[in-house]
């Protein structure tokens, strides 16, 4: 599978399926349901998190039913209402409103975990960067420290980036298990823009300084990018706010430690909130 997956109607089928390539630990699906429509997911061997992007749903997992999940009309209207579905092999979702959209994030997981709800007021936010440094973004940790002891190696967040600003910056990577300097994580980015005709750029490269052949792609509303290695900063064009639904899956643990690119590591002291961001991922 290519790293960049262009926006399309996925017909409620996984965008990143179990055992795929280049990611082997991660799962990602987008569900689009109308009032009364229901769908059952069966993803054995995975832990799943259902994040309501818009609308409202009833979500049943592991013998527990969670009622009226979802409080926002769209992703730009506050933190998400979500259900961590645990390692139940079957999850059933029923839409309570037209236009219900649910992002389903998953990770390979062999441990048994029980479902629980994550209310919007339980979502932690950290602000990183500034307008002066062209790097302001807010990261809402849907499944982060609140999953310690209750979830496997799955981390999920929603990033809101200001127009014309960078995120994932200074550039960092997390493709090697070498604690305490770095831990190995796969990552999925799913992009949205406001207005929807917006666009950005995604960089991905292995070598400090960019090397001879860095990968650079134009990202548009509804695209998805898969990160299995390398430094991966992101840029939004002026005039367009950006949103990234982010899935991180740890190969050996749930504590994410980013390794910042040596060439640009000095910028860590100049961009506000970098250490707070790092702390929230641990």
Share of β-strand residues? 35-45%
Return the CATH architecture of the largest domain: Sandwich
**What strand order characterises the main sheet?**
1-19-16-21-13-12-11
CATH class of the largest domain: Mainly Beta
Q: Total number of helical segments?
A: 1
Explained architecture:
It is a single chain. This protein is an all-beta fold and 282 residues long. The protein has two domains: 22-120, Sandwich (Jelly Rolls); 123-282, Jelly Rolls, CATH 2.60.120.10. It is 2% helix and 44% strand. It has a seven-stranded antiparallel β-sheet, covered by helices on one side. A five-stranded antiparallel β-sheet has the order 2-9-4-7-10, with no helix packed on it. The two termini are 30 Å apart.
Provide a quick synopsis of the model.
The protein has one helix and 22 strands. With 282 residues, the protein is an all-beta fold.
Give a quick set of tags describing it:
282 residues; mainly beta; Jelly Rolls; 2 domains; seven-stranded antiparallel beta sheet; five-stranded antiparallel beta sheet; 2% helix; globular
Layout of strands and helices, then pairs:
Blueprint: E1 4-5, E2 26-33, E3 38-42, E4 46-54, E5 57-61, E6 64-69, E7 81-86, E8 90-95, E9 100-108, E10 116-118, E11 124-128, E12 137-143, E13 154-161, E14 166-167, E15 172-173, E16 185-194, E17 199-204, E18 215-220, E19 224-227, E20 234-236, E21 241-250, E22 259-260, H1 274-280
Antiparallel strand pairs: 1-19, 2-9, 3-8, 4-7, 4-9, 5-6, 5-8, 7-10, 11-12, 12-13, 13-21, 14-20, 15-22, 16-19, 16-21, 17-18, 17-20
């Amino acid at each position: 599978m290519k790293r960049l997956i262009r926006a399309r109607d996925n017909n409620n089928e996984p965008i990143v399926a179990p055992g795929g390539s280049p990611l082997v630990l991660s799962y990602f699906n987008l569900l689009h349901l109308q009032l009364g429509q229901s769908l059952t997911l069966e993803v054995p061997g995975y832990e799943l998190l259902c994040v309501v992007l818009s609308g409202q749903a009833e979500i049943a997992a592991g013998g527990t039913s969670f009622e009226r999940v979802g409080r926002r009309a769209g992703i730009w209207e506050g933190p998400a209402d979500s259900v961590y579905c645990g390692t139940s092999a079957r999850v059933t979702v029923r839409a309570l409103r037209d236009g219900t959209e649910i992002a389903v994030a998953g990770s390979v997981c062999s441990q048994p975990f029980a479902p629980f709800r994550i209310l919007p007021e339980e979502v932690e936010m950290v602000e990183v960067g500034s307008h002066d440094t062209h790097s302001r973004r807010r990261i809402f940790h849907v499944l982060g420290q609140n999953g310690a002891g209750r979830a496997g190696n799955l981390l999920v967040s929603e990033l809101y980036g200001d127009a014309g600003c960078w995120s994932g910056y200074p550039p960092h990577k997390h493709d090697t298990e070498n604690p305490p300097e770095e831990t190995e994580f796969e990552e999925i980015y799913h992009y949205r823009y406001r207005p929807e005709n917006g666009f950005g750029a995604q960089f991905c490269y292995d070598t400090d300084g960019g090397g001879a052949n860095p990968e650079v792609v134009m990202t548009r509303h509804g695209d998805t990018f898969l990160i299995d290695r390398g430094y991966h900063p992101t840029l939004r064009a002026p005039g367009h706010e950006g949103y990234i639904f982010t899935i991180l899956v740890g190969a050996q643990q749930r504590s994410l430690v980013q390794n910042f690119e040596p060439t640009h590591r000095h910028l860590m002291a100049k961009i506000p909130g970098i250490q707070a961001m790092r702390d929230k991922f641990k």
